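Table S7 (text form). Paired inputs.
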Amino acid sequence: MTRIKQSISWWCFVPQHMTPQTLVRTAADIGYEAIELVAPEYWQLIKDHGLTIASFSGHQSIPDGLNRRENGDRIEAELRSSIQQAETWSIPNVIVFSGNRNGLDDITGAEITAENLRRVAKTAEDAGVNLVIELLNSKVDHPDYQCDSTAWGVKVCQMVDSPRVKLLYDIYHMQIMEGDVIRTIREDHQYFGHYHTAGNPGRNEIDETQELNYRPIMQAIVDSGYEGYVGQEFLPKGDAVASLKQAFDICNVG
């Protein structure tokens, strides 16, 4: 059985809690296999420490995304460039965003999002790169964001019908929106290309102070046959190194 491969979301720790060099050394020392959501100028530093870059954002922006036809040409160009970068650097996941509703109904938004993703799906397939639509909560952190439910994201993936267009199942965000995390993983895991963590409420450590029980969640991911990365995307309240070690141990199942 495959053990969970873990990564760290750069923006949660640099520069607030440590330097780039400290984060990368810490990740390698603890046993993390990857870093993600990091600017390209640090990619070589990550590679030099024997780590993978698990993901990066493929286009601008979260609120102004794939659900608008007028964004199609711009985002297609941005994604083609991002896919090429991902292939060159062996980055498995390029993150994409639905954009906000701004009055757009969910059916039309899904159709347009799928239409725009189909423009680059073959390019992603040829490069061996996943385009992962991030599921975000619209209740607390991203008001009006359209891809705020697993069902909506799954519908888009089904309409695109590409093995390289999947969802980034962010456990923190989906706990806020719909809960029932383990059942969702069991039922829809074939559509999940990447995972993120954080404690809820507060987006802090994934310890006993919050409501999610991460060890059985990780076991459900392992049991699904998933072989990708799980990214720690929490904001530490205490010592960042200790929090990263604790999170690694909690999620180190398989």
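Next pair, protein 2 of 2.
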Amino acid sequence: MEYGAGSIKKNGIINGGIIGLVYILILYILSSILGSGFALNTYSLIMIAVSIAAGAIGGIVRSKLEVN
């Protein structure tokens, strides 16, 4: 059974973006708990945006590849 972007056949940009968002939120929450606390600054917003964009690009690429 495949999880994440590997199981999608269409709507790759949406599914990839959601996966990127979930991934960065998990990392952000864990690092905030273990680190100095919850601080949402410009760097954090850039990380979130880049993660969503990377997930969307990955979803597009994955949905366009034909897997046998």
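The chain has one domain: 14-64.
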